[in-house]
Design brief:
The chain is of the alpha/beta class and 502 residues long. It has helices at residues 3-10, 23-29, 35-39, 75-90, 114-133, 149-158, 174-183, 229-232, 241-254, 280-287, 307-313, 332-337, 344-357, 376-389, 416-439; strands spanning 48-49, 66-71, 94-95, 104-109, 138-143, 164-166, 188-190, 198-199, 211-215, 217-218, 237-238, 258-262, 294-298, 322-324, 362-369, 393-398, 445-453, 461-464, 470-474, 483-491, 496-500. It has three domains: 3-190, Rossmann fold (3-Layer(aba) Sandwich); 208-320, Transcription Regulator spoIIAA; 445-500, Beta Barrel (OB fold (Dihydrolipoamide Acetyltransferase, E2P)). It has 15 helices and 21 strands. It has a six-stranded parallel beta sheet, with helices on both faces. The chain has a five-stranded mixed beta barrel with strand order 17-18-19-21-20. A three-stranded parallel beta sheet has the order 9-12-13, sandwiched between helices. The termini are far apart. The relative contact order is 0.09. Bound molecules: 5'-deoxyadenosine (5AD) and iron/sulfur cluster.
């Protein structure tokens, strides 16, 4: 960047106005979530790139400036934040946790439920106060919400203090977007409705040094009728196995102890390759030979969970005996209108196969209650399925209508208070089974990966078991980052208390 550009980029306009007419932009670039349109997408055009580099014109753009990213939602978003932080730092920006001293504030948003979106709109309102104090501050919205046309329109109309909006397929364009935001009087909006290619060499600033996230695929083609993800994250695109294996190898060499493989629907991994037949089972098999203590993955879809994967997971080693397997509902009618493409019986058969191959497996799940027209009997089938499987834990949600999804068009005749009661009743069962699973561990010796001190007490260590259970115990401070053996002496409602053994 030459001196003139640099000065221009620092000269932030105080009279920033939203563009007068974005309609052309919306016509050309944006498509509201549409099942019909999205289902037309093919698998032909994914290209793999390793050519990301910071153009000379952007070098030093961030020198003397600080960035702050607030992340909402899932681990995929957390990992995207690591990539954006990597890009910021490559541009010379420094991270900060303090909004007041930030030159750039980014909200990396989640669109999965209305509540998640409301939090972001609340935060945007709140940021106005900071922007008034520091008019030079740039405010950006990225992540899943920015892929929604209605959200972008609302930001343009009601949140004019926002300087940039960019989508989940535009992260690698961050340097250009930032430059435009510095120079433009208008809000910079760059959202591609069509997913981008896979870019392999984006910089990353990992948040931890013990556990690391590794993307194995992007997007989702399942189109469950309630879910916005296939629209906000685009079609399924798998990373090539050699890239993933290489990344895990380097993380192992750097001393990381645990890898979480990420994808919206990891069981579809590899289905988009047209030159090789290679699935999640093959990938896990290869990763199991790498010298790193623990490897997990999330999130699974029961439909694509195949026998070979079960066979590979049964070998254990560094593949942990914990599977998060979202079921969503125990009723065949509801599963059908959710378009989950399996029945209660299929799901139970799958669970049976997994338990036969891995008898000490811990299964956890996601459940939605109060789906449009869900009856009391159908809800009770979810409770009975939960008991029959004996899940050790669950994330439970009240159905939230997402504009543009097929479910949002269904008439919803379940009153809010009934939905709320169902959630409470389900959570009671979840608590009961979680407590049982924890109590069973009292008296046993268990492997814990120590992550640091506990939230409440500095002199108590905290870590997680292979099944992802939190254990607090007193022990040597130098065990942080290591695997230790702990004897469990007490089960609390969500965690375990132990004694350090070795
Ligand atoms: N309403 C409520 N919960 C939802 N989920 C996804 N979409 C919705 C929605 N519209 C839940 C599912 C999924 C988890 C990540 O979020 O249970 O597995
Ligand atoms: Fe959404 Fe998961 Fe269904 Fe994909 S598989 S549509 S991410 S719930």
């Amino acid at each position: 960047m030459n001196e003139e550009q640099r000065l221009a980029s620092q000269q932030i306009k105080k009279d920033k106005q939203p563009a007068k007419d974005y309609s052309k932009y919306f016509e050309q670039v944006f498509t509201a979530p549409s099942l019909k349109e999205a289902k037309k997408r093919g698998k032909e055009d994914v290209k793999y790139h390793k050519d990301f580099e910071i153009d000379e014109q952007f070098a030093n753009m961030g020198v003397g400036r600080k960035f702050y990213i607030r992340t909402y939602g899932c681990q995929m978003n957390e990992h995207d934040t690591e990539v954006m932080a990597g890009i910021f730092m490559a541009l010379g920006y420094e991270p900060t946790e303090n909004i007041e001293e930030s030159d750039i504030v980014l909200l990396n948003t989640c669109a999965i439920r209305e509540g998640a979106e409301n939090k972001v709109f609340g935060e945007l309102g709140f940021l106005l106060k900071y922007k008034r104090k520091n008019p030079n501050m740039l405010i950006g919205v990225c992540g899943c919400m920015s892929q929604e046309e209605n959200v972008v329109k609302r930001i343009l109309k009601q949140y004019q203090h926002v300087d940039m909006v960019f989508g989940t397929h535009n992260i690698h364009r961050l340097p250009t977007i930032l430059k435009e935001a510095y120079l433009s009087k208008e809000m910079v909006v760059e959202v591609w409705s069509k997913e981008g290619d896979v870019i392999e060499n984006l910089p990353k600033k990992r948040l931890g040094s013990i556990k690391a996230w590794v993307n194995i695929m992007y997007g989702c083609d399942k189109f469950c009728t309630y879910c916005i993800v296939p629209y906000t994250r685009g079609k399924e695109r798998s990373r090539r196995p050699e890239e993933i294996i290489q990344e895990v190898r380097s993380l192992a060499a750097e001393g990381y102890q645990e890898i979480m493989l990420l994808g919206q629907n990891v069981n579809a991994y590899g289905k988009d390759f047209d030159d090789i037949t290679y699935g999640l089972g093959d990938l896990m098999k290869e990763l199991s030979t790498i010298d790193i203590p623990r490897i997990r993955f999330t999130t699974s879809h029961p439909r694509d969970f195949d026998d070979y994967l079960i066979e590979v997971l049964a070998q254990k080693g560094n593949l942990v005996e914990h599977i998060h397997l979202p079921v969503q509902s125990g009723s065949n009618e509801i599963l059908k209108i959710m378009a989950r493409k399996y029945t209660r019986e299929h799901f139970l058969q799958l669970v049976d196969k997994i338990k036969t191959a891995i008898p000490d497996v811990a299964l956890t799940t996601d459940i939605i209650v109060g789906y449009p027209n869900e009856t009391e009997e159908q809800f009770e089938e979810t409770l009975s399925l939960y008991r029959e499987v004996g899940f050790e834990m669950a994330y439970t949600y009240i159905y939230s209508a997402r504009e543009g999804t097929p479910a949002a068009k269904m008439q919803d005749n379940v009153p809010d208070d009934v939905k709320k009661q169902r959630l409470d009743r389900l959570n009671e069962v979840v608590r009961e089974y979680s407590a049982k699973a924890l109590e069973k561990l009292v008296g046993t010796e268990i492997e814990v990966l120590v992550e640091g001190s506990s939230k409440r007490r500095d002199d108590v260590l905290a870590g997680y078991t292979r099944k992802n259970r939190l254990v607090n115990f007193e022990g040597p401070a130098d065990s942080v980052g290591k695997l230790v053996t702990v004897k469990i002496i007490e089960a609390k409602s969500h965690s375990l208390v132990g004694e350090f053994i070795k």
